[in-house]
Amino acid sequence: SPNGQSLAYVKDNNVYYRAVILSTSEISLTTDGVPGVIYNGAPDWVYEEEVFGTDSTLWFSADGSHLAMASFDDTDVKEFSYHMYGDPHDPEFQYPEEYKLRYPKVNTTNPTVHLRVMNLADTTKWHELPAPEITVSADHILGTVNWIGNDLGAIWMNRRQNSATYQRCNVETQVCKQMVAVNEQNGWYVLYTPRCTKSGDRCFFLGNANGWQRIWELSGEDTITYKSPEKYTVTSINGYDESKDNLYYTAVPASAPQTRHVYRNGDCLTCSLKDKFSNNAPCNYASISFSTDFSYFAATCSGPTPSYTQIYRTENFLWRIGKT
Predict the structure, then answer these.
(1) Could you give the number of structural domains in the chain?
(2) pLDDT, the chain, mean
(3) Which of 76, 79, 119, 320 measures 20 to 30 Å from 87, CA to CA?
(4) HEC profile for the chain?
């Protein structure tokens, strides 16, 4: 959990919980897991590889009081057979073994996905947060999940992935409200988990705007404001410093597509970065990571000189620590 007090983990496709990390007492939060068929807290093959890009679908709330879980039912997903040849020097693998994997293809059944949340004060009951089928149909995909203050946010898409809705759910009442809907008639919706403030009053999204991937802010009732300029392709949101209202992101300008730099509220933060160990050669390809309070950042330059990392104080851009 974020507070470092408790632990949730998956074993044999079921979710277990320890209220105290070092305790040997574990609580089974699910019991219906079946390896290869029913997945709780961990994605099946298609969701791991094509949607979430991770092997975990468990999300603690910031204070550790609630746990959200995505589960996947592959019962109706068709099986794909393949051979495992093993080590050619091992006598046990003189003949290949046949393995089966539930693998959905075009026009076949996808896994059935469920999003649930539990108040960990009562570990006997999960609450379902249903997909908005009226918007994304019964054949839908769960795209991303994130906590927004004490609420849970989720992006649901139709199977074609050209229609998506971002829902904000009250985990106590299980009532969900659509924050924004996106329709891409000439393509598909590219998934990015939104960045929201701790209170959940403001959220930042990445999305297409007239052919450019831009950051837009969702604030209040259906109020959208673009936070990055036109003719820039934003590749990632690096962070948001609430105390100073500074939004950091990585972007590629149309005028210099061979470069990649980090920006703060539209101003380039790394364009002046120079390699102090290579005759002050300019950096053309930068990435960045921040300390927890945004007081320092580590800037990595990956070209054209050999890669190097330098640490700076954010306030005055003073170089603090040497190259690694």
Answers:
(1) 1
(2) 92
(3) 79
(4) CCCCCCEEEEECCEEEEECCCCCCCCEECCCCCECCCEEECCCCHHHHHHHHCCCCCEEECCCCCEEEEEEEECCCCCEEEEEECCCCCCHHHCCCEEEEEECCCCCCCCCEEEEEEEECCCCCCCEECCCCHHHHCCCEEEEEEEEECCEEEEEEEECCCCEEEEEEEECCCCEEEEEEEEECCCCCCCCCCCEECCCCCEEEEEEEECCEEEEEEEECCCEEEECCCCCEEEEEEEEEECCCCEEEEEEEECCCCCCEEEEECCEECCCCCEECCCCCEECCEEEEEECCCCCEEEEEECCCCCCEEEEEECCCCEEEECCC
Percent over 70 (pLDDT), the chain: 97
Which range marks the domain in which residue 270 is found? 228-323
| Residue at 318 is within a domain | yes
On whether residue 250 sits in a domain, the answer given is yes
Least confidently predicted of 185-189, 212-216, 228-232, 268-272: 185-189
Residue 108 located in a structural domain:
no
Rounded alpha-carbon distances, angstroms, from residue 324 to 276, 287, 300, 315: 12, 14, 9, 22
Nearest of 160, 167, 166 to residue 185 by alpha carbon = 160
- For residue 241, being part of any structural domain is answered with yes
pLDDT score at 207: 87
